Amino acid sequence: MEKATFGGGCFWGVEEAFRTLKGVKKTTVGYMGGNKENPTYEQVCSNKTNHAEVVQIEFDPKIISYNELLNVFWQVHDPTTLNRQGPDVGTQYRSVIFYHTEEQKNQAITSAEKEQKKHPQKIVTLILPATHFYQAEDYHQQYLAKRGAKSCHL
Q1: pTM of the full predicted structure?
Q2: Domains (range + CATH), the chain
Q3: I want to staple 7 with a disulfide (CB 3.0 to 4.6 A). Which of 1, 19, 54, 153 is the partner?
Q4: What are phi and psi of 15, to 5 degrees?
Q5: Residue of 4, 10, 72, 97 marked catalytic
Q6: Confidence of residue 143 (pLDDT cuts 50, 70, 90)
Q7: Residue 138 CA to chain centroid, in angstroms?
Q8: What is the Cα–Cα distance from 17 to 149, expressed in whole angstroms?
């Protein structure tokens, strides 16, 4: 198994996009990239911890490649909006790829360059090394699936 970590707005919708893909064994929503240990959802939403809402994915690379996951990531959010996705505004909603290996870093950079060609606006997606992952509170896990929903917004 390998890990991939993406932030593309509200983690509920990002998780749902990956949760049922063949080869994805587990999705967990949480927080990464900030400066507070064990942050709560309320603290992350305060814009004072610098964490992003992310989904951490455990996947079998023999079934689904990291590049295929990157393709889904680009499709499920707007990588040209800074700290915003739809009605959600704040640094926790930034577009970010946290890589776990140098190979993932290189693939993410190549993928971002390819994606940029599709947009007249500059892509603002950050590509950063993965840091400590803090799992979000239980009620956030598979939030949409528990409610029979496929996305956060109408």
Answers
A1: 0.94
A2: 2-146 (3.30.1060.10)
A3: 54
A4: -60, -45
A5: 10
A6: low
A7: 18
A8: 11
